[in-house]
Amino acid sequence: MKWTKQRINNLFFFLGVAVVVVMLVTFDVSFVELWQHLCHAGYWLIPIVGVWIFVYGLNALAWQCVIRANSPDSSGISFLRIFRLTITGYALNYATPVGGLGGEPYRIMELSKDIDKQHATSSVILYAMMHFFAHFWLWFTSVFLYLALAAVGDVPLTMPVATVLAVIAAFCLLAFYVLSKGYRKGLVIKTIRWTGKIPGLSGWSHRFLERHEEALRNVDKQIAALHQQDKRAFYSSLLLEYASRIVQSLEIMFMLLLFGVDCGGGWNGLLLTFFHSILILSFTTLFANILGFLPMQLGVQEGGFVVSIAALGLSAALGIFVSIICRVREIFWIVIGLLLMKIKN
């Protein structure tokens, strides 16, 4: 059977639908409890879900910077198309193990309808690298945010906490080094060679490199060219991706305010609550990405929320509520992303 783009599109679509069904029937709480949580959230669900329009908008702008700098024939790609592929790509990432096994191939397939396949591939890989790069910057800066809050007595700073912060900072510095080398020289060929060291994949890696080495070298050259030739686009994309994480923190802040957690009220209290939200998001995403081989990070994200919220002196019940509402929001946007797959340009 010939695998046309339409057949692959349908495969991704039905995979996403299957995962949504699995998620609905395997919730950690009963549907009665879930409904109670949703009723508790009430009208707050509108800003909690709606803030992701702005998060995905910033993601799409960051990807647009990469596409326009990387591909000379991308001027005809509208922002709305990039925005649609952004939402759909993340929906598939949520629905498949190891993140990009669904979203990134789908984006390459769709973007290659507008530009040549090599530039589509390098643009998607570049954006995925930028997405990870921004994650590491969030985790790295959160270490110093925590230290600043500890200095004013807002959060505890014990020896175990200090050790964890030091490990996170070292981990991020190592990632900065690896990613900076990838931006200078490209990572595609090296990644495939590293994959060949995994037992059982050596033959596939060798054959794949033999067939596509020239194309892969061109992709690596295009990746390196963005950082070397268009630093404005590079740093604009990075800043937009980082900003999307900060905006995402508002989702958690809304839920904290819903539970009456406002650090004393007033502008100072709201600012502290926002800083706490950034820390909760940062440490939860770090935990989830370390164990990100599970579809929709089942159980990992929930545990990350509970642990990170409890570490700030808040109740575990609040962590469970936040994780459940975030899971509902994820399902909502997965459904939106899947529906967008079936909407023609």
Description:
The chain has 13 helices and no strands. It has 345 residues and is mainly α. The chain is globular, with a radius of gyration of 21 Å.
Q: Write down how many β-strands occur, each being a DSSP E stretch of 2 or more residues.
A: 0
Strand percentage lies at under 5%
Mean of residue pLDDT values: 78
Head-to-tail CA distance between termini: 27 Å
Biggest β-sheet: count, sense, barrel? Answer: none
Q: Specify the structural class.
A: mainly alpha
- The dominant shape is globular
Question: Any low-confidence stretches, pLDDT <50, length ≥5?
Answer: 293-297
Query: How many helix segments?
Result: 13
Provide the helix percentage. Answer: over 70%
The H/E string reads: HHHHHHHHHHHHH
| Radius of gyration based on Cα positions | 21 Å
Short description:
The protein is mostly helical.
Question: What are the key terms here?
Answer:
single chain; 345 residues; mainly alpha; 13 helices
List the topology elements.
Layout: H1 5-25, H2 31-41, H3 45-70, H4 79-95, H5 100-111, H6 117-151, H7 159-185, H8 188-195, H9 202-229, H10 231-258, H11 266-290, H12 300-311, H13 316-341
